[in-house]
């Protein structure tokens, strides 16, 4: 068993990358001795004068024998020659890595020179650079918050990989691992192709007769894109030779894409042009968000929320639009025939994922711009296969609903998500869809990534053990395509936004209730006709403000244009029983969803007893009820339903835990919650909370003994971008604070 150390470092090739790595390790005292060898000795002499290295190597064989770590930082074309020079002197316990941008060529050279891959060989590629070159430009902070891709081979010792990873992490890099040949394919698209295009564009324009004017009047975009054409021509010649096949494949794909755009421009095909441009815009924005903090975009800091207690809520407030309805408007609008216009679309991170997914499936969508979206529907049979896997980020709604839609398509799809969402199980959804004949491969827990294959769906009678609007909606979307009739049965009502939306697009379905059983039936014989949709204000956010205004003395607040779907507002009668002062003024022309202005004033609440039947349809709103009960006169007893889903149980347990941490007196005995009036201490919550629990804690903070800091709120604010501004408008003293 080999043991690796990292005391003595040898850099072969002291340019920008090699010099920066040496300087970073030396300045942080990660290694004890830094030596360097370069075919231009003056570079090593300069490195000594600048304090980048400790030793300028003249005797390479001796330096190789003494080194614990060797970093190859030479041009791609020189790799094989350098490997031949060091091979006779390399110790079995020496770590060997590199910083090159191609890996297949390097691995081939190592096999040829060594015959057998050394166990300490771990190829690497830092995604970092600068416009200047040479050791004179060495920067000890070059790799901070940048990605480094390690591409260990089957022969690489895992302990060696770990040591190399630790070296990169010690200089601030984020270390990832990838198969070396996959690395070359990815870099061909993201790095090598852009460089080739920049070289080609500048070379082409330089041959134009009026090239002086072209370059004289070039705007910032041209300068930014063509900046990389000033890179080292010899280096890029070598890279193109080493990664030829992958680069050629990307050039061919790019050429096909340009040809499609050229055809659209030549034909004056506005819809095709808008489709290409809008898909590209959203993809660019999406990946900028996805890669925040990496080499490809500016880093972002985590954000905490700090709420000061005591400020009354007052005035008239308009809050952001409903997330759930926004998702469904995009989905059903895309599947309709004609042009759908949406006003009041909610521009949160998750709902934008739904737009992105449909653009990748060929749907032209304009916007969103200040809440306005226009969708050129393709009909039920018009979706196109995406060119790659669909990434849905953290959006569970996108994942649930699109899974039901994708199982009915004639093409295969891969769906992947953010790591946190991949831990969730969608077994209820998958089992329901598989009952209809869907072919879905998932992880062992029933979560994503999903591999969805084409299948012929058949209508079925499906009983949902737990009423879930997302599961129900997923099955209904599959039912649009299934042969025959699909009938869903649940033991209680839940949100019916999808049913209302389908009806507003002219699609028939039936709903009934009999003997405590709720039944929804849909056939695949209908069509969806484009329409105009106005998305009302989000009731969940409104409920947070309603609860806060009820708690804080002297509050008098009016919320305008709020969606009051009867299956979303069932908590309001329970609050009224406790003594809350809440008045709804319904709008006359409400469209497909009822809309109201809601006025709420401070009230001293009284404890109540709530049966399981009372709370059966408000489980997801229970965090608000639990917080309010802690400030009521007398105890509150809540009997929980016997059949809770895993998600519902987790939500209640999360709320109980955070409230106890805040000093609440509450007991959870089986299916009974007993809440005794308690003073909440404020301070700090360090756990990452589910959004609805975070909302409830914002409410609790308005009556806490001191300010409350809710840490790690960046994801919450990405989902609700205008949250802080809207709460401030209502009167809550809330601030964003960065680490």
From TrEMBL:
Per the UniProt record, one Pfam family is PDH_N
Q: What is this protein called?
A: prephenate dehydrogenase
* SUPFAM superfamilies in the cross-refs: 6-phosphogluconate dehydrogenase C-terminal domain-like, EPT/RTPC-like, NAD(P)-binding Rossmann-fold domains
Q: What is the lineage of its organism?
A: Bacteria, Pseudomonadati, Pseudomonadota, Gammaproteobacteria, Oceanospirillales
GO biological process annotation, one example: tyrosine biosynthetic process
Superkingdom to which the source organism belongs: Bacteria
User: Which EC numbers does the record give?
Assistant: 1.3.1.12
Q: What one GO molecular function would you report for this record?
A: prephenate dehydrogenase (NADP+) activity
């Amino acid at each position: 068993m080999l043991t690796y150390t990292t005391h003595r470092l040898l850099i072969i090739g002291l340019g920008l990358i090699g010099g920066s790595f040496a300087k970073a390790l030396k300045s942080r005292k990660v290694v004890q001795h830094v030596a360097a060898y370069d075919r231009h000795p003056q570079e090593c002499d300069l490195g000594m004068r600048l304090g980048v290295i400790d030793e300028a190597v003249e005797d390479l064989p001796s330096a190789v024998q003494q080194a614990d770590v060797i970093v190859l930082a030479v041009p791609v074309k020189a790799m094989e020659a350098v490997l031949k020079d060091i091979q006779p002197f390399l110790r079995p316990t020496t770590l060997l890595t590199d910083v090159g941008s191609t890996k297949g060529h390097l691995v081939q050279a190592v096999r040829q020179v060594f015959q057998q891959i050394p166990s300490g060989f771990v190829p690497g590629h830092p995604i970092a650079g600068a416009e200047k070159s040479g050791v004179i430009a060495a920067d000890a902070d070059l790799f901070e918050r940048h990605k480094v891709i390690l591409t260990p081979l089957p022969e690489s010792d895992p302990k060696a990989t770990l040591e190399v990873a630790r070296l990169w992490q010690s200089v601030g890099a984020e270390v990832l691992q990838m198969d070396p040949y996959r690395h070359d394919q990815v870099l061909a698209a993201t790095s090598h192709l852009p460089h080739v295009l920049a070289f080609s564009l500048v070379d082409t324009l330089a041959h134009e007769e009026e090239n002086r004017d072209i370059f004289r009047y070039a705007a910032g975009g041209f300068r930014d894109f063509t900046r990389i054409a000033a890179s080292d021509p010899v280096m890029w010649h070598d890279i193109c030779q080493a990664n030829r096949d992958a680069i050629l494949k990307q050039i061919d794909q790019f050429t096909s894409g340009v040809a499609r755009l050229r055809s659209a421009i030549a034909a004056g095909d506005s819809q095709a042009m808008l489709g290409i441009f809008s898909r590209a815009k959203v993809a660019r924005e999406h990946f900028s968000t996805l890669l925040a903090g990496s080499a490809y975009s500016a880093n972002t800091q985590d954000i905490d929320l700090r709420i000061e207690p005591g400020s009354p809520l007052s005035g008239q407030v308009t809050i952001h639009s409903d997330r759930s309805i926004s998702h469904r408007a995009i989905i059903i609008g895309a599947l309709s025939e004609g042009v759908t216009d949406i006003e009041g679309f909610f521009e949160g991170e998750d709902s934008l994922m739904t737009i992105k997914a449909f653009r990748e499936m060929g749907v032209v969508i304009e916007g969103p711009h200040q809440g306005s979206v226009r969708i050129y529907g393709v009909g039920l049979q018009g979706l196109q296969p995406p060119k790659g896997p669909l990434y849905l980020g953290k959006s569970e709604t996108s994942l649930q609903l699109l899974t039901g839609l994708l199982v009915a398509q004639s093409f295969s799809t891969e769906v992947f998500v953010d790591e946190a969402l991949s831990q969730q199980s969608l077994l209820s959804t998958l089992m329901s869809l598989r009952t209809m004949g869907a072919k879905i491969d998932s992880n062992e827990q029933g979560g994503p990534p999903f591999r969805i294959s084409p299948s012929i769906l058949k209508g079925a009678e499906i009983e949902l053990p737990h009423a879930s609007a997302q599961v129900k909606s997923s099955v209904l979307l599959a039912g649009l395509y299934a042969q025959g009739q699909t009938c869903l049965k649940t033991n209680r009502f839940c949100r019916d936004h999808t049913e209302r939306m389908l009806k507003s697009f002219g699609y028939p379905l039936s709903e009934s209730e009999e003997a405590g059983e709720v039944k929804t039936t849909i056939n695949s014989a209908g069509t969806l006709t484009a329409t105009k949709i106005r998305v009302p204000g989000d009731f969940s956010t409104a409920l947070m403000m309603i609860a806060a205004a009820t708690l804080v003395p002297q509050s008098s607040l009016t919320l305008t244009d709020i969606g009051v779907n009867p299956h979303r507002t069932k908590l309001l009668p329970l609050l009224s029983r406790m003594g809350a002062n809440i008045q709804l003024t319904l709008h006359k022309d409400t469209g497909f969803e009822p809309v109201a202005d809601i006025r709420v004033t401070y009230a001293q609440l009284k404890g109540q007893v709530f049966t399981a039947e009372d709370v059966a349809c408000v489980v997801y709103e229970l965090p608000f009820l639990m917080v309010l009960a802690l400030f009521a006169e007398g105890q509150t007893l809540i009997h929980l339903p016997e059949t809770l889903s895993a998600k519902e149980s987790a939500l209640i347990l999360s709320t109980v835990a955070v409230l106890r941490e805040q000093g609440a007196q509450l007991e959870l005995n089986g299916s009974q919650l007993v809440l005794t009036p308690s003073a909440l201490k404020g301070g700090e919550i360090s756990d990452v909370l589910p959004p609805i629990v975070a909302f409830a804690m914002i409410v609790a903070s308005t009556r806490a003994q001191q300010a409350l800091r809710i840490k790690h709120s960046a994801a919450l604010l990405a989902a609700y971008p205008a949250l802080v501004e809207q709460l401030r408008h209502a009167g809550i003293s809330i601030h964003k604070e960065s680490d």
